[in-house]
Design brief:
alpha/beta; three-stranded antiparallel beta sheet; 7 helices
């Protein structure tokens, strides 16, 4: 997490600001652990929302900014400070979200959205299933990358990025939303 937060910071902040603009008062938002989702938090300040997260640093900053927050329980993955495992999955299955914002490690037109960890992939899948709208927030380094575990197909989530490659756009269903940050 610490290494990721220092890479492509300006791009992540632009993407995060665009993503936060999609959040409305009274939304119940899932904010996935990840560096770009973490960058969304300052842009959420002052909104009347409930945020559910599996990111320990996310929960701390959300609380500092006086945003109503639920940190799901479970095992903390030391490398990313993401809460994972069967306890967190069980808890997540009981929640419904207006919007889910997910970090991701790879976006590929053939293999979809991928991540290296099976337990993190499970949390992401549950969030997508239980959200009215799901978005992947990703900087350019995530495109044309494939990680070990498939989270979902590329048309299952909107994409918020600053530069979505044309071959990704061509392979999306018409219903898939792309929000490009300026």
């Amino acid at each position: 997490m610490e290494d990721k937060t220092s890479k492509n910071v300006q791009d992540k902040q632009r993407i995060a600001e665009k993503a936060a603009q999609l959040v409305s008062d009274q939304d119940i938002v899932f904010l996935d652990a990840g560096s770009t989702t973490y960058e969304m938090i300052p842009f959420l300040k002052g909104k009347s929302i409930l945020v559910v997260t599996n990111g320990v640093p996310h929960a701390s900053l959300l609380a500092d900014l006086q945003l109503e927050t639920i940190l799901i329980g479970g095992k903390i993955k030391m490398e990313t400070k993401a809460v994972i495992g069967p306890v967190s999955q069980m808890q997540m299955r009981n929640y419904r979200f207006s919007k889910a914002f997910l970090g991701i490690n790879g976006i590929d037109k053939q293999y979809g959205f991928t991540t290296p960890d099976t337990e993190e992939a499970s949390i992401k899948r549950i969030a997508i299933e239980n959200a009215a709208q799901s978005y992947v927030v990703a900087d350019a380094s995530k495109f044309k990358q494939v990680s070990f575990v498939k989270v979902c197909d590329i048309e299952d989530c909107g994409i918020i990025s600053h530069n979505v490659p044309s071959e990704i756009k061509r392979n999306l269903k018409d219903s898939t939303t792309i929000w490009e940050a300026e």
